[in-house]
Amino acid sequence: MNFSDLLHSAMHDLLAPGASLSAFRPELTLCATILVILLAKMALPRWTTSAFWLTLLGIAAALWFAYPWSWASDAIPPAHSIFTGVLVSDSFSVFLRLLLLLFAILFTTFTQVSGVASQDDMTEFYVLMLGALVGMCLMISANHILMVAMGVELASVPCYVLAGTQRQQPRSSEASLKYAVFGAGAAGIMLYGLSLLVGVLGTAHLPTMSTRLAMLIQSGGGLDRGLVLVLGGLMLMVGVGFKLSAFPFHFWAPDVFEGATAEVAAFLSIASKAAALGLLVRLALGFSFHPDPAMLAVLAPVRHYIVVLVGMLAVVTCTFGNLAAYGQNNMKRLLAYSTIAHAGYMMMPVAAAVALVGVDMGEARAAVASLCVYLAIYLFMNLAAFAIVAFLRNELGSEDLREYAGMVRRSPGLTVCMAVVMFSLLGLPPLSGFVAKWFIFLSLISAKLWIVLAIGALNTLLSLFYYLRVVKVMTLSAEPLHRPAPTIPLVSMAGSYCMVLTVPVVLLFFFAGGLLNWARAAASTLLY
Amino acid sequence: MMNLLTQPVGLSHYLAVSAVLFVCGFLCMATKRNILGVLMGIELVLNGANLNFVAFGSRLLRGGTSDGLGLDGQAIALFVIILAAAEAAGALAIALNFYHTHATVDVDRAEELKG
C-alpha cells in the first residue's frame, strides 16, 4: 500500500458518516467548550457569569450529540471501534456518556445554586470539571491500553486540583495534597502493571490482548509468564481500585471528601465512580471474552482469577464502608464511607458478569444492565444527598450531623427530601434504591455467587443503622438551644433543586421498567 | 537460570533496570516525608514503566520477530512523558499551596483530616 492509499483510508476512517469523528463529537464539543470559556474570560472580562452559561451550553450541545437519535427508528448498531481501534463506540459507552453528561448539567446548576464557584475562580472550576469529564468519557470507551492510561490520568489530575479549590483553607489544601500524592502513586503503579501486561502479550489493543492471552494459555505458556501476568493484573487493579475507592485503596476518600467542598465531593463520588466502573467493565470483559468459542473455553482460568479478585474486593469494600460509617459525625465523611460501600455493591455485578461470560451471554449482559440501572439511580440519590449537605452548610456553616437536630420543625420539606434519599440509599421500597439493589442481587443469583450475595444482603442490613441515624437526628432530636434550626423552604432555589433530584428517586421505582429497557439496550452490544 | 552479566545486552537487561527503577521509586514514595521526594519517587516509577514500554516495543531486542508491541510501545511512552509532566505541574502547584497554608512540605504534617 502506498502513501496516498494509506492517507485516503485514514481520511475515510476519520470523516465518513458514522465513522470516528462523528462518534467522537460529544468529546470534541467538550474540548471546544473549554477553549471558548478561556477565550471568553479574556475577551469579555465584564461578563462575570460567562463561564457558567458557556459550560451549560457546551454540555447541552454535547448531550445533543451524545443522544442516540437513530436508535428509535432502527435497531441498535453493533459495536465498532473508532480511531483505528483505540476507542470503541457501542451502546454501553453511549449510555454511560449520556449519564455523565446529564450529571454534568445537574452538577453545573448545583454549583451555581449553592454558590461554591465564587466569581473570580469560576472559570478555572468549570474548565477543570470539563477536562475531567473528557477523561471520563475516554475511560468508558477505552479499547487500548494507551487510552486506559490517558483516560485515568486525564480524569484524575483535574480532580486533584478541584479538591483544593478553596485555597485559603488548610483542610482543603491538605485534602488535595493527599489526593494528588496517593493518586499519582497509584497511577504510577498501574502504568508499570500495564507495561508488564502489554509487554508479555505483545500488544496494547484489548481484544487482541485476549486473543494472545488465550494462545499463551493454549501453548502451555510457562509459569514465569503467567506470574508476570498475574502481577501485572494486580498492579492494574491498584489503579482502578484507587479510582473506585475499593478497600485497600479507599483511605483517600474520607479525607478528601471532608476537606473538599460538598460539591466537589459529589463530583468525585458520582462521575469519577461511574467512569471507573465503566473502565472496570471494559477491562474485565475485555480480558475474559473472546468471540471464538474454543478460545473462550481456554480463557476460563483468566475469568476465574478476575471473578475472585473483583468479587473479593467488592465484598470487603462493601463491608468496610458500612462498618466505618457508624461512628461518623461529619456528614461528608459519612457519605464518603457510604460511597465506598456503594462502590462495593456496584463491583458485584461486574464479578457476576465475568462469571457468566462462559456460561450464558444473555445473563452476563443482564448483569451489566443491572450495573447501569444502579449507576443511573445512584446518580440522583447521591447528588441529592450532597446537595442537601451543601445547602445546609450555607445556612449553618457546619457539616456536623449533630447540628441538623430538630430540622423537621423549621424546614420540613428538606427533611423529607433527606429522609427519602437516605431510605433510598439504604434500599427500602418503594424507593428506587430498592430496584437498584434488587437487580444486582438477581444478577448474583444467576451467576451463583452465593457468598457475595449473602454478604451483600447482610450489608444492606448493616447500613440500616447509620442511614436511619441521620433521619433520627433530623426529626426526633430537640432543636439546639443556642440557635434556631436552619430554615430552607421548598420554594427557594435550593429547596426546588433538592426537589428536582428527589422526585426521580421516587419515580424511578415506579418507572423502573423504562430504565431497565435503556440499561438492557446499553448492555446489548457488549460481548460479541 | 541465565546469568545476566555474561549475556549480550537484551530485553532482560532493560527489564532488570526498569524493575530497579520501579522499586527505588516505590521505596521513595513510601518512605520520604518531603512532598518533593515523594513526587520524585513517582517520576522514577513512571520512568520505569516507560523503559518497559520502549524495550518491549523494540524489534531489535525481541530478535527481529514482528509479533511484538512495535511502535505502540513508543507512542505510549511519549504519552506517558506528557502525562507525567502534567501530573508534576498539578502536584507541584498543590504542594506550593500546601506550603502556603501549613508552612511546611512534610507530608506527615498533613494530619488534620482523619477518623
Describe this structure as you would to a colleague:
The complex is a heterodimer of chains A (528) and B (115). Chain A is globular. Chain A is built from 22 helices and two strands. Chain A has one domain (23-67, 78-523). Chain A has a two-stranded antiparallel ribbon with strand order 1-2. Chain A is mostly helical and 528 residues long. Chain B has 115 residues and is mainly α. The N and C termini of chain B lie far apart (49 Å). The model of chain B has no long low-confidence stretch (mean pLDDT 88). Chain B is elongated and about 55 Å long. Chains A and B meet through helix 7, helix 8 and helix 11 of A and helix 1, helix 2 and helix 3 of B.
> What summary fits the major beta sheet of chain A?
2 strands, antiparallel
Order of helices and strands of chain A: HHHHEEHHHHHHHHHHHHHHHHHH
Q: List segments of chain B where confidence is low: pLDDT < 50 over at least 5 consecutive residues.
A: none
Largest sheet of chain B: none
Task: Identify low-pLDDT runs of chain A.
Answer: none
- Number of DSSP strand runs of chain A: 2
Q: What is the count of helical runs of chain B?
A: 3
Number of helices, counting only DSSP H or I runs of 4 residues or more of chain A: 22
- Based on Cα principal axes, name the global outline of chain A: globular
Tally of separate domains of chain A: 1
Arithmetic mean pLDDT of chain A: 90
| Average pLDDT taken over every residue of chain B | 88
Structural class of chain B: mainly alpha
From the 3D structure, determine the CATH topology of chain B.
Answer: Helix Hairpins
Name the features:
heterodimer; A: 528 residues; two-stranded antiparallel sheet; 22 helices; B: 115 residues; mainly alpha
Layout of helices and strands:
The complex is a heterodimer of chains A (528) and B (115).
Chain A: H1 3-15, H2 20-23, H3 25-43, H4 50-66, E1 80-82, E2 87-89, H5 91-114, H6 122-140, H7 145-163, H8 170-201, H9 206-218, H10 223-244, H11 252-259, H12 262-288, H13 293-298, H14 300-324, H15 331-357, H16 361-396, H17 407-410, H18 412-426, H19 432-447, H20 450-475, H21 493-510, H22 512-523
Antiparallel strand pairs in A: 1-2
Chain B: H1 11-31, H2 35-57, H3 71-102
Helix pairs in contact in B: 1-2, 2-3
